[in-house]
Known about the structure:
Elements: H1 21-39, H2 41-57, H3 61-76, H4 82-98, H5 102-118, H6 123-143, H7 147-165, H8 169-174, H9 179-192, H10 199-212, H11 220-240, H12 244-265, H13 270-286, H14 290-304, H15 314-352, H16 356-396, H17 403-410, H18 419-429, H19 434-441, H20 445-456
Helix pairs in contact: 1-15, 2-3, 3-4, 4-5, 4-6, 5-6, 6-7, 7-9, 9-10, 9-11, 9-20, 10-11, 11-12, 11-13, 12-13, 13-14, 15-16, 16-17, 16-18, 19-20
Amino acid sequence: MTTHFLPHPAPAPSSRGWATPRLVALTLCLLLITWPAGADTYSDAMRLKAQAEQEQANGRLDVALKKFIGAEQLFAQCKGAETEQSLCLYYMCISYFNQRDLNYMKKPMERLAQLAQRWPANKFIQYDYLSVLAAYESCVYEEKPSKELRKQFMAHFKQAVGWQTKMSVGEWKRRQINPMFNLMNIATLYDLRYDPPMVDSMQAYINKALEVDGLPWGDKDDHIEGRISAYDLQAWVLLYQKRYHEAEAKEQEVMDMIEGVEKERGNAVLTEKGEAYAFFVELYKAMGKPEKAMEYLELKNENDRKRFDIEKNTAIRNIEAQYESKRKDERIAALHQWNIGLTVVVVLLILLLAGITTTLIYRRRLREQKLYEEALAAELENSARHSSLRLLADQLGIRGIDIDEAHRLLAQATKPLTVVDQKYILCFLNGEDVRHIARRFNVEPASVYTVRYRIKKKFPNSTKLPL
């Protein structure tokens, strides 16, 4: 919700000489300079946040974090903008989390905790904070496992889901939340963080995920993806219980759903098919059917062979990306200096003129300059995006994809793509399955499904994504 703010009124002139033309002009100039800052704080914060998301998508994480910090500080000055402030802090925490910079993650997480304490009934703030806290604790657990820490992050994940249930179906849609995946994340943690897996708890959360499947929170594909995830984990539960024939039937349902959407989605289902084939390999090994296991292993290998395998020159791409980034920075800095000089000249002209007409002309000129600067900056950012994508692929060690085609695909996004989004898309373009990607980023497979869902929501339905 956009909040509008009125500027502070100018002080009334006294009877002791304030009405002279020069002082009137000076007063108008000061009003002009101070007015937009008070009136457009919220708009400036939103613009800064959008720029931060774009910088993050271009791989300029340091610049993105600075802008997120600036946007969060501006939101803190706006009444009724606590939810947007929370979202900025959430993005900052997640950025550090994805880089595994847990020490840097602490500061924004502490501010998010203060915000959550101040607004205990705000379901969005509570959801943001508990999600970040649970993710942080889960990461710490990987380094120093303990039952107490596991108990903490499981409790916080459940509390986050509890706040999710307080949101309406419409709010799930607006915030692009897939409630099935969030419930499946907990079910997956009961599988991966416990030895042996907590089968009963897994089943309980699978059931909860299937219950919300009937609610209208997403499109048909969203529900099918959530159902595939739930049925697949259900098959693993049956496998753990040694109910092999039921597990076989349940995973066959997964295969039927995958094949049902394969005609429309094409290569986008290769990951799911590979996971299903891998399950059948494990199932038939447990059933003592090595021939069937080998049959599905061959199917899995054939599925994997459909991936891209084209080498790129890493050194050249790195140099090109660094050159383009430096050139863009230099041009933006020069443009900024030019605008500063022009602003000074305009202010001096305003001081020589008096009256409302001159003031209005000056304000219009400032707006034109700002729009010009933003337009040129956007053009420069777009010119560097292609090289940035090459650099990102090289950093990931991905050499088997067509960068030009990847750039054209990313350009179809209707919402800003974060650097994490781009990494995942590159991995999917490279033909990597969910488990491979999960190991690459040191996350759970269910989290990969969640990220994939969020990425799809940023593209038009007509876009053919390799997800």
